[in-house]
Amino acid sequence: MSTAPDPRPRDPKPALVFDDPLDQPSSDDTDRGWGERPSGDSAADLKRFLDEKPPHHI
What pTM does this model have? Predict the structure, then answer.
């Protein structure tokens, strides 16, 4: 029996990256994703406040 090399291309293994992760900004470094909403009318703000009020603030 002869073993021929596999003709299918192999996926390259991911390279190890030894960069300092603190040099790159994270998603927490931006205001995006912190729940900011465009400023609207006060009725919508009151509705949001009442919808998100914790149960112990009844």
Answer: 0.28
